[in-house]
Amino acid sequence: MKKLFGILLVFICVTLIPMAASAKSNSSHLNRERLEVGRALVEVTYDNLDSIIPYYTHDVQYFDPVVEINGIGEMTEFLYRLFGSTPDLITTVEDEIAIDDTYTATWTMVGTFLIRDEDGNVVIGEDGQPVGIPYDAKGMSIIKFRPKTTDVWYQRDYYSEADIMQAIPGLDAAACGFRFYYIFAVDPSPELPEGCELPPPPE
To answer: 152 in helix, strand or coil?
Structure first.
């Protein structure tokens, strides 16, 4: 009986150890590549935009709180429009993980939306520089890869539109108003939302 158990134990070890080693090495190598790709897609800038587009598949799907994109054609146009409107956009990854076929990261983005006139031309100020509205927001991204590849077929970016609205005259009051009423409705220890002031008392 002991001999049979010993043979069985040896068989199990011989069978499983190579599989475990292979899975570990393949997974860690692929996940390191996916970390690099995911970070490159999140931290893309105006200057390296061309280099990241090939990572997306022809049928890529992209979502954020406002935009829905289907296909590489729309994705490419979206990215060029985005960086055409905010060429100084910088996104910095804070925490990230790649596991199975998914990359997830939290980040902070900072940039300036250029103001355009009715004809679509960028407004130039008296100092000769483009006029823009600075903004910043925190968010997170979920990126999904085709199995065993670094080909990205899905990306969703989450962030609060109100973080951006707060910097835009005319929208700032609406953003602060919602945050004010929401936080005092649900927060047991409410404080004024950062960057917001008390609304004027009713007349």
So the answer is: strand
Confidence of residue 121 (pLDDT cuts 50, 70, 90): confident
The CA–CA distances, whole Å, from 98 to 45, 54, 150 equal 22, 20, 11
Residue 22 pLDDT > 60, yes or no?
no
pTM of this prediction exceeds 0.85:
no
Output the furthest CA–CA distance in the chain (Å, rounded).
93
Lowest mean pLDDT among 43-47, 64-68, 89-93, 177-181: 177-181
Strand partners, 110: 90, 136
Residue-wise DSSP of 165-191: HTTSTTTHHHHHHHHHHHHHHH-SS--
d(CA 45, CA 37): 14
Protein fold of 2-159: Nuclear Transport Factor 2; Chain: A, (3.10.450)
Asked if 133 and 89 count as a contact pair (C-beta separation under 8 A), the reply is no
Amino acid of residue 169: P
pLDDT of residue 3: 53
The Cα 22–Cα 10 span in angstroms is 19
What HEC string does 7-22 produce? HHHHHHHHHHHHHHHH
Average pLDDT for 78-105: 95
Give the domain ranges of the chain.
2-159, 162-196
- Answer yes or no: is pLDDT of 27 > 70: no
